[in-house]
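Ticket #4471: structure output looks truncated?

Reporter: J.K.
Steps to reproduce: submitted the chain below (371 residues) through the standard prediction queue, then opened the result file.
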Amino acid sequence: MEKRIAIVFGTRPEIIKFSSIIKHCREQGIGFFTVHTGQHYSREMGKIFFEQLGLPEPDFRLSVKSSAPFMQGEHTGKMMQEIEKLLLREKPTDVLVEGDTNTVLAGALVTAKIATVKQLVSFRPRLGHVEACLRSYDRSMPEETNRVIADHVSDLLFAPTEQARENGLKESIAKEKIFVTGNTIVDALQMVEKRVQSGNALEELKLRSGRYALLTLHRQENVDVRERLHSILKGVSEFSRKHGIKVVWPVHPRTKKMLGKFSIAIPKEVRAVKPLGFLEFLQVEKNAAIVLTDSGGVQEESCIFRVPCVTLRENTERPETVQVGANIVAGWKPEGIAEAAEKMLSRKRKWQQPFGNGKAGKKIIDIVLRE
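Returned output as attached by the reporter:
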């Protein structure tokens, strides 16, 4: 049966990590279509990412919204309804989801449910989970629930590392379902490497290479709790004052909203800027003295770029970055942040990134075609 792959995404990180898979499908003439759920609501920012990665506009846009950020069930349910209608109409042979978002949960559950009614709908799509078997072991994070459920209903699990594969095996996921492929973030960074090197984002932001810290902050457990958001900014500003390193902060729309709601002033040591395009962000990230973040993807990117990272959370689903010496998990209290940042500033950048050789996208599609 000829393959027709549905690639379902909804956030900017998912677009980035699917980019090499989409390009490989196009180059090899493999049948596929893309579905954008609209989980990241900035259409303009999404457009920039497609353009900079050389990707076609999505074949289908669902533009699903929830009435409030905490309405996780409503958000997931609305996406499930729209994804189900689309998949029943288009009848793909395989559905690919990536990561740990509500989009992943919705796409995974719908595909698994359709598989149970093959006799009624005349097709049975397989579910593939890209970046499978990551674990923080913190069920207070919505992302952890999403990734665990997606893994356990998937037919094909594309684990980025051997450690991720071991996570799946410990949960009794059948070993024949799990494939270690590397992480497609390496593919994406290699695809844009020359443009990152030749970009002018530093000049436009008046930054000097190696003379600033980069801050990113967006996870709900940090930005939706006043005490934590205030505490993190206090720790970042204390580090900045002690070491004389200015901090540049592309402020996520969600975080900006919560700063206003909580009446939290941005410290004078922190320079807030508008969100950056993919290439601009990578230029700023690659040239930073240190990265302070609560993002899983930024932990990976900084590790690959050999830029020291401090994770502003109490756990990470990317433990490989800590094990190779690229990252310290600092938590959200000021003293922990300042101490971790000081350690990372003095650490030699000799680690080897653990995420593969940049051929993950090809490996994933080859497995989908073969299995």
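Triage note (M.O.): checked the attachment and the full token line is present. The CA atoms of residues 290 and 345 lie 7 Å apart.
Status: closed, working as intended.
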